[in-house]
Amino acid sequence: MDGKSYFKARKSAVTPSGRISYVEQGSGPVALFVHGVLLNGYLWRQQLAELSDVRRCIAPDLLAHGHTQIDAGQDVSVTANAHMLAQFLDALGIDQVDLVGNDSGGGICQIFAALYPSRLRSLVLSNCDAHDNWPPDAFKPFVEMVAAGGLADTLKAMLDDKAVYRSEQALGPAYEHPERVSDDTIETYLRPFLASPQRTRDLERFVNAFDCRHTLAIEDKLRQVRAPTFIAWGTDDIYFPVEWSHWLAQAIPGTKWRVEFEGARIFFPEERWRDFNRDVRAHWDANPASQTDLREPLAREA
Question: What is the pTM of this model?
Answer without folding.
Answer: 0.95
